[in-house]
């Protein structure tokens, strides 16, 4: 699982973030820049996994932060800033998916590597790296075939590793309702992923080293 910008580092407390937000609300662009530095890569990864294209993801990330900046005065702190920001990102992604052309094929994604999320620079064994890349291509290809309102749940829960409570807040539903939606999302994802599963996977969501087909 790749590291995501979910919270400020230990050296920065919630009060530090609150002060940054207040400064940004007052028009301090430097303060907003620090918030962008903190959450920019996380928003990019979410958008990239939703859209599957790096150029689109960068454009949409900029749109998300512009929209958030315009709406910042309306942020009351009733939810965490990250939750509020990811709610905006999710809505912008869903709007973009409704407008955009059909998703790229797995062959196209493999050629340009456009689905590749921000990750650390460490490299493993070449064979493992190839397996990981093919696994990610398979996951992204399967995601592109899942309905957007289910896709976002798979991304937030299984790729972003976010809590049920946070996901419910992001998508605007109760935790009980989320459980039902997520069950349906998993079933849709399993069906879309079936062509890429190995014979010994028994239909489970891919995990661990199972032919390197893991939710990244």
What does this molecule look like?
- By secondary structure, the chain is an all-alpha fold.
- It has two domains: 101 residues, Orthogonal Bundle (Rna Polymerase Sigma Factor, Chain: A), CATH 1.10.1740; 94 residues, Winged helix-like DNA-binding domain superfamily/Winged helix DNA-binding domain (Arc Repressor Mutant, subunit A, Orthogonal Bundle), CATH 1.10.10.10.
- It contains nine helices and no strands.
- α6 packs across α9.
- The termini are close together.
- The N terminus and C terminus are likely disordered.
Overall domain count: 2
Per CATH, the class of the largest domain reads: Mainly Alpha
Principal-axis shape: globular
Helix content range: 55-70%
Low-pLDDT parts are 1-11, 103-118, 200-216
Structural class: mainly alpha
How do the SSEs run, as a string of H and E?
HHHHHHHHH
According to CATH, what is the topology of the largest domain? Rna Polymerase Sigma Factor, Chain: A
* Strand runs, count: 0
Number of helices: 9
Strand content: under 5%
Q: CATH superfamily membership of the largest domain, which one? A: RNA polymerase sigma factor, region 2, helix turn helix motif
Q: Evaluate the radius of gyration.
A: 18 Å
- The CATH architecture classification of the largest domain is Orthogonal Bundle
Reported for the largest beta sheet, the result is:
none
Distance between the termini: 5 Å
What does the average pLDDT come to? Answer: 77
